[in-house]
Amino acid sequence: MKVAVFSTKSYDQFFLNEANQSQHELVFFEPHLNEKTALLSQGCEAVCVFVNDDLQASVLEILAEQQIQAIALRCAGFNNVDLEAAQRLAIQVARVPAYSPYAVAEHTVALILGLNRKIYRSFSRVREGNFALEGLLGFDLHGQTAGIIGTGKIGQIVAKILNGFGCQLLAYDVVPNETCQQLGCEYVGLDELFQRSDIITLHCPLTPETHHLINSQAFEQMKDGVMLINTSRGALIDASAAVKALKTGKIGYLGLDVYEEEGDLFFEDLSGKVIQDDVFARLLTFPNVVITGHQAFFTENALKNIADTTIDNLTSMAQGKSCPNLVTLKHTRTP
Ligand code: NAD
User: Fold this and answer.
1) What are the distances in angstroms from CA 324 to CA 3, 28, 50, 63, 327?
2) Which of 20, 67, 132, 260 has CB 3.0 to 4.6 Å from 234, enough for a Cys bridge?
3) Do 45 and 146 fall into the same domain?
């Protein structure tokens, strides 16, 4: 298949070319896919996209006019695709359901440890010759109560790691996970998880039900000084409500790898530009907030797995074989 590959960086090209071995004709484009760039797919039969590409109905309609038959997502989440429109336009959608849950789980724990022990502050201080410890006080993770929202592939590994640290584990999921239950994870309602957790970490998908799951009402229920971590999808948290909760001290630590409006920011070097997003800019001013730019997945193992599965998905869709990674409307329904 001739494939228009959007949002590509040098590392995407490297791993995709390695996996492809000339099976498909890959045409790489740096811009995101959106209404303005969709025509770049002219002459191709498939598009290959990432988390911040826009696959709403109007974009899919342009793709269908270009005879695009398949969309290969280089990610697990598919919240950026209008699946109803894809079905109506007979465009197949495939994703990479798992590439390295360890990558994301380990980054989650890196945020927890980095925030708690203020590694980011110590790093700058020590380089400036400031060896004072005021403001660097942390707490033992051992004995803390960690609430995990979404105990699928990633949440389950976070549970295992935090169990290793000696945390008490609470969990909330629409389908409890047996491995987590065997670890001693206590499944509770969302309200109870908010009320009892010292650390809350999000690992559920972004769906209409989970949009702004963490909002001002949720913050009201949480312990003062709670640590909140989001490596899942930005819109799980109402970022303006988070700013308010940081100002009152309700949130004691905030670790984000994702942000609701990250499409205009992440994956680009904007160091010479003025950030126009005032909520994001405000978040950056707090001493107890660490933000990484959607890098939780970014390990060699994950990039290789993403590329291998993406090429396999394209091959199955091209050959009309059953593709185990197709995403259909049934995936959007909460069981
Ligand atoms: P998964 O499908 O294995 O697990 C998701 C879990 O969430 C499931 O157990 C599911 O039952 C649960 N869930 C669904 N709806 C829910 C709801 N309304 N409330 C509570 N739980 C609910 O997915 P995963 O591989 O563990 O990935 C989790 C999320 O992590 C993905 O949706 C994706 O958005 C995100 N992610 C982020 C990165 C990154 O680089 N930051 C990388 C990969 C995945």
Assistant:
1) 20, 25, 19, 23, 9
2) 260
3) no
| Ligand 1 close to Cβ of residue 234 (< 6 A) | no
Q: Is 300 a catalytic residue?
A: no
Count up the domains in the chain and report the number: 2
Active site residue 128: no
Q: Is the distance from the beta carbon of residue 168 to the nearest atom of ligand 1 less than 6 Å?
A: no
User: Is 230 a pocket residue for ligand 1 (Cβ < 6 Å)?
Assistant: no
pLDDT by 10s per residue, the chain, length 335: 999 999 999 999 999 999 999 999 999 999 999 999 999 999 999 999 999 999 999 999 999 999 999 999 999 889 999 999 999 999 999 999 989 999 999 999 999 999 999 999 999 999 999 999 999 999 999 999 999 999 999 999 999 999 999 999 999 999 999 999 999 999 999 999 999 999 999 999 999 999 999 999 999 999 999 999 999 999 999 999 999 999 999 999 999 999 999 988 999 999 999 999 999 999 999 999 999 999 999 999 999 999 999 999 999 999 998 899 999 887 765 54
- 248: helix, coil or strand? helix
The one catalytic residue in 32, 74, 107, 233 is 233
The answer to whether 25 is a known catalytic residue is no
Instruction: Output the CA 174–ligand 1 centroid distance in Å.
Output: 11
What is the distance between the alpha carbons of residues 196 and 205, in angstroms, rounded to a whole number? 23
Tell me: do 284 and 319 sit in the same domain: no
| CATH number for the domain harbouring residue 143 | 3.40.50.720
- Residues whose CB falls within 8 Å of the CB of residue 195, separated by 6 or more in sequence, listed in order: 221, 222, 223
Mutate to test the pocket of ligand 1, among 50, 154, 229 (most ligand atoms within 8 A of CB): 154
The parent domain of residue 282 ranges over: 101-291
